[in-house]
């Protein structure tokens, strides 16, 4: 929760610093580079704004830095009151399966976004287990966006410690909110870049931005991204699992729609490897799959609404 709202001047400086940290080439762990900025103090002042800003800029820059793992680890340490968990690697459930417990043995199937630390936090149902990573197998996940460094972790682990004071639902809520913010950042950049392109690309003696059909496409995408941004902002303030689920859903859909409309704007150049667009498209597809793609979440939202007969209000929306 926020304690002191960050001023516009402070936010401008924060955005500049975060953009530099997210795009620089460095062997120093991302969490350590954030600490050099005085990140803990910024988060203490206004956690929801600081984290939302970080992940929106990560989306805008399609940075390969893993901001999610250290952020989830810090959140877990705060929930449990155990500062040692800050150094653990927090795993996400694998899209191909789940981790299970058989007696005293854990069968692990999860994914991580950064190299493994000595200990791994893995979800087993709604419980969280802390296991040593020695002996576990890691397999890089090849495919759409390899710059994220997604790695599958699997194997057997015995003698794990169950973590008290936090559940997977709490971590999943936090992660969905952060991913929603990143997808909003992607959508915002994609629409803005397409608008700028439409101003200078000339066809039939006119900038293509004057054509009403293209205006409608980009305006529709812009509205969807702005709306998703408002839901994501509310998810950060409320910390509510339902709001985070809706935020992840609408942000994933908005980012994909932004890419679809931008592709129509770019035409053939949008298919080239030299143009930046493909990086945003590929990142959108991968992030959308983490913790439920927008189509799956949309279906889940519909089922919940049917079962409850109530439409929960999200902030002032």
Q: Calculate the terminal CA-CA distance, rounded to whole Å.
A: 20 Å
Q: Return Rg in Å.
A: 20 Å
- Write down how many β-strands occur, each being a DSSP E stretch of 2 or more residues: 11
Helix-strand string: HHHHHEEEEEEEEEHEEHHHH
Query: How would the global form be characterised?
Result: globular
Q: What's the tally of helices?
A: 10
Which runs of at least 5 residues are low in confidence (pLDDT < 50)? none
Largest sheet entry: 5 strands, antiparallel
Strand content: 5-15%
Secondary structure: helix percent: 40-55%
Structural class: alpha+beta
Protein architecture, described:
The protein has ten helices and eleven strands. It has helices spanning 8-23, 30-36, 39-45, 47-61, 68-80, 168-200, 212-238, 241-266, 277-289, 294-308; strands at 89-90, 92-93, 100-102, 105-112, 119-124, 127-132, 137-140, 151-158, 161-162, 202-203, 206-207. The strands form three sheets. Strands 2, 3, 4, 7 and 8 form a five-stranded antiparallel beta sheet that branches. A four-stranded mixed beta sheet has the order 1-5-6-9. A two-stranded antiparallel ribbon has the order 10-11. A hairpin with a 2-residue loop joins strand 10 and strand 11 (206-207). Helix 1 (8-23) crosses helix 4 and helix 7 packs antiparallel against helix 8 (241-266). It is globular and about 70 Å long. The two termini are 20 Å apart.
């Amino acid at each position: 929760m926020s304690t002191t709202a960050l001023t516009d001047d402070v936010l401008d400086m924060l955005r500049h610093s975060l953009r530099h940290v997210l795009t620089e080439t460095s062997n120093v762990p991302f969490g350590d580079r954030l600490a050099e900025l005085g990140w803990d103090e910024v988060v203490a002042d206004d956690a929801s704004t600081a984290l939302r800003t970080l992940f929106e800029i990560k989306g805008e820059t399609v940075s390969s830095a893993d901001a999610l793992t250290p952020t989830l680890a810090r959140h877990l340490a705060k929930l449990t009151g155990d500062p040692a968990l800050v150094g653990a690697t927090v795993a996400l459930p694998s899209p191909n399966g789940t981790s299970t417990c058989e007696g005293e043995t854990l069968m692990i199937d999860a994914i991580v976004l950064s190299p493994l630390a000595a200990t791994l936090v893995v979800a087993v149902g709604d419980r969280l287990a802390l296991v040593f990573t020695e002996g576990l197998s890691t397999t890089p996940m090849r495919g759409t966006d390899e710059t994220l460094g997604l790695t599958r972790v699997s194997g057997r682990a015995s003698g794990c410690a169950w973590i008290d004071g936090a559940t997977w639902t709490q971590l999943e809520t936090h992660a969905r909110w952060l991913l929603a913010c990143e997808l909003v950042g992607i959508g915002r950049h994609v629409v803005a870049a397409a608008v700028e392109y439409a101003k200078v690309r000339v066809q039939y003696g006119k900038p293509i931005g004057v054509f009403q059909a293209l205006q409608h496409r980009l305006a529709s995408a812009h509205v969807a991204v702005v709306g998703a941004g408002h839901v994501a902002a509310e998810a950060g303030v409320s910390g509510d699992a339902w709001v985070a689920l809706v935020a992840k859903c609408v942000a994933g859909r908005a980012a994909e729609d932004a890419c679809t409309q931008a592709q129509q704007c770019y035409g053939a150049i949008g298919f080239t490897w030299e143009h930046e667009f493909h990086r945003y498209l590929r990142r959108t597809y991968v992030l959308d799959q983490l913790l439920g793609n927008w189509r799956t979440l949309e279906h889940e939202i519909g089922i919940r609404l049917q079962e409850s007969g109530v439409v929960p209000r999200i902030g002032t929306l």
